[in-house]
Known about the structure:
The model has no long low-confidence stretch (mean pLDDT 97). The chain is built from 10 helices and 17 strands. It is an alpha/beta fold.
Amino acid sequence: MPESIPTPFILIDAEVVRRNVARLADYARSHRLGLRPHTKTHKSKMLARMQLDAGAAGLTVAKPGEASVMAEVCDDLLMAYPAVDPVQCKELAKLARNNTVRVGVDSEFAVDALADAARSMGSTIGILVDVDAGNHRTGVQNSAEALSLARHIAKQKGVRLDGLMFFPGHLSAAKPDAQNAELLRIDEMLRKVIELWRHDGLEAKIVSGGSTPTATQSHRIAVMTEVRPGTYVFNDMNCVHGCCATLDDCAARIVTTVVSTAVPGQVVLDAGSKTLTSDRCGPAPDSGHGFIVEYPQAKVTKLSEEHAQVDVTACDPGPKVGDRVTVVPNHICPCINLQDQVWWQEPGESPRPIPVDARGRVY
C-alpha cells in the first residue's frame, strides 16, 4: 500500500474493474440485452467511457446533476428517478435539446412538470412508466395504473412515451438461484402491462430494469430490453454476501490506518462514517461495517464520524498502531460520493488520482 498517500483513501484495482466491466458487457451481448450502467456508483467520466467502450448503449443517472456531468461523455441518458422539482425538470429539458434524455416516473404530476419544462426549452423528454416490481419504493402499483399514466403521457406535448422501467431491489439479498421464481413473476407482470398497452394502441419499445444482484439473471425476464446495473463495476460486501460477486471481484478498497489500540480487544481505524458510511450489509446485517481483508476475523462494530471501532478479540495477533489495513465496504456507492478523488492502481504502477466528477451531485 502506498505510504505517500494519506489515509483514509479509496484504492481502485484497475484490472478488476476492467474484468467486471467486460464480464457484464459480454453477458448482455450474449443475451441481446442493452446495457445501460448506472453511474451513481463510480460518478466518473473516465469509468463511464470505459463502460461505453465495452459496449454500453447509454448511461443511467440518479439526478439531473449527474446527468449534466455524464452528458459530457454520452448523449443517451436515462434518469431512473422521478423528476418533479421545476428547476431539475428545466435542467433535464435543457439537456434534451442536444441529447436523448429519458426519465422514469410514476405520477401525472411528474409527467406534467417535465412536459412544461420541455415545451419551454423546445425539447422532448422520453418517459418510462415506473412499475413497482416488488421493491415497494416507487412505481405504479398495477397494470391499470400503468395504462392510465401511459395514456396521460401520450396526450402531452413535450414528452414521449418510450416504455417501462422497474427495479427488482427486493431481491438484493437473494442468492441468484433463489431469484428465479420471482423474476418469472416480474416477467409475467410486465407482459400484462405491455399487452394492455398494445390493446390501447400504445407501445413499450423500452423495458428497462435490473440491478447488480440480478444482473446475470436478467435473461429470465424475457420482455426486458436493457439492464441497469451500477455496483458491478466495483462490487462490495453487499455483493459478496449476496453471492453475486467474490472478494476477488471487489475492485474498490478503503485503505485506513490503525490509530489506537488502547482499549483491550479493540483497535480504532481512521475511517469512520464519513468514509465507510453507516450502511449495514443488506444480506448480512450483523456482519459489521465492512470487511478487513488482512484480518478476516475482525469485526468493525461501531462507527463515529472519524473513528471505526474494530473488535479484534478473534485475531492473534491483531494489528498495531500505525499499521495500514484495507476495508471492503458494505455499500461502495455512497463511499465514492464522499471522496473528491480516488486512486487508480494499474499493475506494476504507482496509484494515480482520478476525480470523482459527479461527487456531491445529489440534486
